[in-house]
Amino acid sequence: MRGDSRLSRMLHVLIHLGRRKEAATSEMIAKMLNTNPVVVRRTMAGLRERGYVQSEKGHGGGWKLTRSLDQISLLDVYEALERPELFCLVSASDHAGCLVEISVNEALEDARREAEALLLSRFATLKLSDIAGDFDRRMDMLGLSPGAHGFDT
């Protein structure tokens, strides 16, 4: 099963948008993510519907944040992306009547639910500004300016 990187990718994009004065086009974002602009627009749509970004068409248009990075949590972005699967564990269904399989599946599902609740609780406490601050510290340690990264240049 292939992992879902939408959350990671959109967090990346949103932090870059938070650093920009002007809008970033879908083409610019797609180039940074090595994907298609249509994929960018489709993925950003949920963020726009929740009011975290806005888009404008035409010359000078593109995507802009509508809130500051300290007003957006990881949970906000996760929910705007329609809650992608966090874990790829699936229950076996080879022997639906087997009491061992039923017990195993129930134990795995209980553990998955607990882990998901813990992770989502942590997502709620992390703001995009926390991640951006960590990025700034890393850039400072390397003696680089934040504008030397991504589509900010």
UniProtKB/TrEMBL annotation:
PROSITE patterns to which the protein is assigned, alphabetical: HTH_RRF2_2
InterPro entries named in the record: Tscrpt_reg_Rrf2, WH-like_DNA-bd_sf, WH_DNA-bd_sf
Organism domain of life: Bacteria
SUPFAM superfamilies linked to this entry: Winged helix' DNA-binding domain
Protein's name in the database: Rrf2 family transcriptional regulator
Originating species: Rhizobium rhizophilum
